[in-house]
């Protein structure tokens, strides 16, 4: 029995999230279906983290144990041949038997994409949040840095377990504008609260549209005071990378 680490990419539009749910189409469920066709008999695939309904990924990590007597390349092709069009494996490698994609992770990175336009564009809006009135780009790039460092992010999300901490360390929080007018927010942390990435984007856009004072965001970060309700739409968010230090 060998343990394998895979990096998954998926278009989240057709999934009710990544985590297995009875009678619902999920990333984990579709991946496990493909493995069963190859003789996999495990109870469940272990994934690095949960993504919400509609959230995409280019760097989701999962592990599974399988008896496979053929070359690694043939396993890659066999899995890929049994996956649906909106789910793919980007890489496959042997892993140590004690490797855990969630607990061994040292950081996770997300990317959020948006653009500003008063007119709908169905093709762009599948993967980008259309925002209008337009944002103040200087405000986006200037203010994102307040989130870096170790803070209690209770105002920006909920813990992933009932007794979990809401303290997280953010090592990157940056906006950049692309040549076509798209804005991308890159955020990396040791871990994320439930819906934290989408709340960070929603709050920053609200500030950059003049709807929310930056001072109120700073107070929420320092004193965990509540912020206005709302989240950036899921379809603009992508899990880009999970890192593992010595396990990489």
Q: How would you describe this structure to a colleague?
A:
The chain has 248 residues and is an alpha+beta fold. The chain folds into two domains: 2-96, Alpha-Beta Plaits, CATH 3.30.70.580; 107-245, Alpha-Beta Plaits (2-Layer Sandwich), CATH 3.30.70. It has five helices and ten strands. Strands 1, 2, 3, 4, 5, 6, 7, 8, 9 and 10 form a ten-stranded mixed beta sheet that branches. Helix 3 packs across helix 4 (196-208). The mean pLDDT is 95.
How can the largest sheet be summarized? 10 strands, mixed
CATH class of the largest domain: Alpha Beta
- Our Rg estimate from Cα atoms comes to 19 Å
How many strands appear in the DSSP assignment? 10
Uncertain parts: none
Which CATH architecture of the largest domain?
A: 2-Layer Sandwich
Strand content: 25-35%
CATH homologous superfamily caption of the largest domain = Pseudouridine synthase I, catalytic domain, C-terminal subdomain
Stated plainly, the CATH topology of the largest domain is called: Alpha-Beta Plaits
**Number of helical stretches of at least 4 residues:** 5
Shape: globular
Helix and strand succession?
A: EHEEHEEEHEEEHHE
State mean pLDDT (0 to 100 scale): 95
Number of domains: 2
Helix share bin: 10-25%
Distance between the termini: 21 Å
Can I get a quick summary?
Strand 2 and strand 3 (56-66) form a beta hairpin. The chain has 5 helices and 10 strands.
């Amino acid at each position: 029995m060998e343990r394998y680490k895979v990096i998954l990419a998926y278009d989240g539009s057709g999934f009710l999230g990544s985590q297995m749910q009875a009678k619902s189409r999920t990333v984990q469920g579709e991946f496990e279906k493909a493995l069963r066709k190859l003789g996999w008999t495990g109870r469940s695939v272990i994934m690095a983290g949960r993504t919400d309904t509609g959230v995409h990924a280019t760097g989701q990590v999962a592990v599974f144990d399988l008896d496979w007597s053929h070359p690694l390349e043939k396993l890659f092709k066999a899995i890929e041949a049994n996956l649906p069009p909106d789910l793919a494996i980007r890489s496959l490698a042997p892993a140590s038997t004690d490797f855990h994609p969630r607990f061994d992770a040292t950081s996770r990175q997300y990317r959020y994409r948006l653009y500003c336009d008063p007119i709908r564009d169905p093709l762009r809006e599948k993967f980008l949040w259309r925002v209008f009135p337009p944002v103040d780009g200087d405000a986006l790039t200037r203010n994102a840095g307040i989130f870096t460092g170790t803070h209690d992010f209770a105002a920006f999300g909920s813990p992933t377990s009932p007794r979990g901490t809401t303290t997280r360390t953010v090592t990157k929080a940056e906006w950049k504008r692309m040549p076509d007018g798209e804005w991308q927010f890159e955020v990396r942390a040791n871990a994320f609260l439930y819906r934290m990435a989408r709340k960070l984007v929603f709050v920053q856009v609200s500030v950059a549209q003049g709807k929310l004072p930056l001072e109120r965001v700073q107070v929420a970060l320092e004193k965990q005071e509540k912020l206005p309700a709302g989240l950036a739409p899921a379809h603009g968010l992508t899990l880009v990378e999970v890192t593992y230090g010595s396990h990489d």
